[in-house]
Design brief:
By secondary structure, this protein is an all-alpha fold. It contains 13 helices and no strands. 67% of the residues lie in helices and 0% in strands.
Length: 227
């Protein structure tokens, strides 16, 4: 147990050092302003960050304890560490299961902002729950949370499902939070409907038309953006 913990800590320390050494600190202020100064950045943009992680994995391999590594990266101050944690989760999603729901929920509700939430919800939690045929119970659990990031995540779980989307569930989730005044929930509802409209445009249009008086203007505009 202690050896495993040391291994994880050493791995994370080397990875954080690699990110820090490759960064351009002069880029950090602009990146921090873009995220409304909520997070500190090393100053490492996406192409460079991807390159650092690729080189690091080629030399070190994937971590032995992906979950522990992701949690440890989430505790780091620099936002690039959370981005790398998301990338490791995505690379490991075939090894994840619904038993990891507490981990998904922790990552969504800690250091929350759209950048990490919108990566984890559809790409990791959504993919895992689809494989496990457990999207409905997870979505219904999160949509009733008091945390609006979990509400957003519930709506975005099916974002990549295309023809596998549970239409009735999607419409139900949107209506359950139709009265929300939270921008990120309203935006998610419109985004999810717009994505599903690529599969069933007439169904989405009919749904929005029927419930227009209940839905926010933002949700309606987003849902019908490409109609």
């Amino acid at each position: 147990m202690l050896a495993s913990a040391r291994s994880t800590n050493d791995y994370v320390q080397r990875l954080v050092e690699a990110l820090s050494q490759a960064a351009d600190p002069f880029q950090a202020p602009d990146m921090e302003r873009y995220m409304r100064d909520q997070f500190r950045f090393f100053g490492l943009k996406t192409p460079e960050r991807t390159s650092v992680l690729r080189t690091f994995l080629a030399e070190e391999g994937m971590p032995l304890d992906v979950r522990g590594t992701v949690r440890a990266l989430w505790e780091q101050d620099a936002r690039e560490c959370q981005y790398v944690a998301c990338a490791l989760l995505l690379k490991s999603k075939k090894t994840l299961s619904m038993d990891d729901e507490p981990l998904f929920e922790h990552l969504i509700t800690a250091k929350s902002w759209w950048d990490t939430v919108d990566s984890i919800a559809p790409n990791v939690a959504g993919a895992v729950s689809l494989q496990a045929k457990a999207t409905r119970p997870l979505a219904l659990q999160w949509i009733e949370s008091d945390n609006f990031w979990l509400q957003r995540s519930a709506i975005l779980l099916q974002l990549k499902y295309k023809e596998h989307t549970d239409e009735a569930l999607l419409f139900d989730l949107v209506l359950r939070r139709a009265s929300s005044t939270e921008f990120f929930v309203r935006k998610a509802a419109g985004w999810a409907l717009r994505q599903y409209a690529y599969v069933q445009p007439h169904h989405v249009h009919a749904f929005v038309t029927q419930h227009r008086s209940e839905l926010s203007g933002l949700t309606v505009r987003e849902a019908l953006k490409h109609a």
